[in-house]
Amino acid sequence: xxxxxxxxxxxxxxxxxxxxxxxxxxxxxxxxxxxxxxxxxxxxxxxxxxxxxxxxxxxxxxxxxxxxxxxxxxxxxxxxxxxxxxxxxxxxxxxxxxxxxxxxxxxxxxxxxxxxxxxxxxxxxxxxxxxxxxxxxxxxxxxxxxxxxxxxxxxxxxxxxxxxxxxxxxxxxxxxxxxxxxxxxxxxxxxxxxxxxxxxxxxxxxxxxxxxxxxxxxxxxxxxxxxxxxxxxxxxxxxxxxxxxxxxxxxxxxxxxxxxxxxxxxxxxxxxxxxxxxxxxxxxxxxxxxxxxxxxxxxxxxxxxxxxxxxxxxxxxxxxxxxxxxxxxxxxxxxxxxxxxxxxxxxxxxxxxxxxxxxxxxxxxxxxxxxxxxxxxxxxxxxxxxxxxxxxxxxxxxxxxxxxxxxxxxxxxxxxxxxxxxxxxxxxxxxxxxxxxxxxxxxxxxxxxxxxxxxxxxxxxxxxxxxxxxxxxxxxxxxxxxxxxxxxxxxxxxxxxxxxxxxxxxxxxxxxxxxxxxxxxxxxxx
Length: 526
Ligand SMILES: *[C@@H]1O[C@H](CO)[C@@H](O)[C@H](O)[C@H]1NC(C)=O
Ligand SMILES: *[C@@H]1O[C@H](CO)[C@@H](O)[C@H](O)[C@H]1NC(C)=O
Ligand SMILES: *[C@@H]1O[C@H](CO)[C@@H](O)[C@H](O)[C@H]1NC(C)=O
Ligand SMILES: *[C@@H]1O[C@H](CO)[C@@H](O)[C@H](O)[C@H]1NC(C)=O
Ligand SMILES: *[C@@H]1O[C@H](CO)[C@@H](O)[C@H](O)[C@H]1NC(C)=O
Ligand SMILES: *[C@@H]1O[C@H](CO)[C@@H](O)[C@H](O)[C@H]1NC(C)=O
Known about the structure:
Elements: H1 9-13, H2 15-20, H3 27-50, E1 59-63, E2 72-73, E3 79-84, H4 99-106, E4 111-116, E5 123-125, E6 148-150, H5 152-164, E7 167-173, H6 187-198, E8 204-207, H7 214-217, H8 224-240, E9 248-253, H9 262-273, E10 280-289, H10 301-304, H11 306-321, E11 327-336, H12 349-362, E12 365-371, H13 389-400, E13 404-405, E14 416-422, E15 434-441, E16 447-452, E17 459-466, E18 476-477, E19 480-481, E20 496-499, E21 504-506, E22 510-517
Parallel strand pairs: 1-16, 3-4, 3-12, 4-7, 5-6, 7-8, 8-9, 9-10, 10-11, 11-12
Antiparallel strand pairs: 2-13, 14-15, 15-22, 16-21, 17-18, 17-20, 17-22, 18-19
Helix pairs in contact: 8-9, 9-11, 12-13
Transmembrane segments: 31-51
Organism: Cephus cinctus
Pfam families: Glyco_hydro_79n
């Protein structure tokens, strides 16, 4: 089945241009330059012709207002991802030495890679641990929660993977090693930090995972006041051992947005007591239960509307603590429990992912750490080391969306969820200023959009992501299946090009990146 009729007469007018142009081929630029002059005259004539074009039915008008200052600025490593600490239990099954995997990670840089998760609170460094005949499992999800140890070599190989792919590692230290008085015993953590420093590793840190849920998983309770003291101790350790300029993030709470506000309350009390020892407040977010989620849930606006409420509730908690600090979604995906099989790793998962990136950036979330790069049904890279659709969505985001966030109002905010940022330098044509409008169309039918008040010489480049089926593992860019080139390079991203005054057709169930070349907003001049 194909829902999508993307071509209309408009594509054919510019077919030559859209078929020869590639962002990834610098050599084509000079050819393009001379072509552009000639084309401009043609396009000018065409745009005059187009002025008389009728507005198509089902067209939504989008008004862009020039802004002097950005709405927000996110981290340069806004889109980041996790490698769950549980992977370190089986180092030889982790593909961090595989060239295909290294290549896929490299295409996502710059980013943070967070090595964290439930197993972080079971992890020891170079320690001989007592053997258990029966491995303890988590009452929450049945996962292995036995203590385990990693060696120098293991730690080094994870770091080398990050270092070689241009990623910045964040390592989650074990918060459950305790002294008799209840305070954190940092002896083992100090060995990791000393080892890292001894090998001149540049990296960042955190302590513990979902501490507000320790009693459910480990039958242990650590109060937020205590964890705050432990973070002060860790900050002091990092400062004295050569990591003064590294960031420390926490407290990694979950259950934000639940009726009882347990996650937010934990974070608030933590912030009230931690003496500014963290650089960002971190929390975890999922929309759905991986075991129950259905395909409809992945395209239902009610699912999407859950995140704004969670962010607002967390913001209130931060405000109530009296601190001025950014939040960071440090572990997040569509569905918890490892993701929903056949959904979280398919085309349909991209809608929640892209909307999360857009909404988070707009509402002041500093960085978003996707669970996960590898492992589980929510991973961006499959067990066969082929990229899943969300990997491609992320690559497109990294290419077309900068950290400078602007404002846009969608005329159909439930089903047409749009965001706008300045276009990054690397995606500009001849340094002509540009903005990138991106987002998702959840309508069952093609939706046309029309930008009001654009300068006549603006050219709109459309990059539409679609699929033959919502549950397909394949994803298409302007109707061509996305595949890496045989040498591992990205394929050229070929746009469909429109004039400023044309209707842009957005396919049903599509993700779209629209680069408006020639839109010059002062907020984007660097
Ligand atoms: C990290 O990478 C740089 C070069 O990119 C290299 O000089 C350095 O030795 C690496 N560090 C480690 C600990 O591997
Ligand atoms: C794991 O290590 C922690 C910290 O030393 C300890 O409290 C806990 O009892 C250990 N768990 C098991 C199952 O041995
Ligand atoms: C912390 O743990 C180390 C290693 O197990 C132990 O030698 C030390 O006595 C502990 N510190 C305290 C204060 O209990
Ligand atoms: C918190 O910071 C203040 C001011 O720098 C300092 O006096 C105090 O000792 C710190 N508290 C802890 C628990 O380290
Ligand atoms: C938090 O405080 C900021 C600044 O004081 C304010 O603009 C914002 O509306 C508050 N947010 C919430 C959710 O209370
Ligand atoms: C996906 O989920 C299924 C069912 O829970 C599980 O058997 C499978 O191992 C998971 N796949 C991955 C890659 O984790």
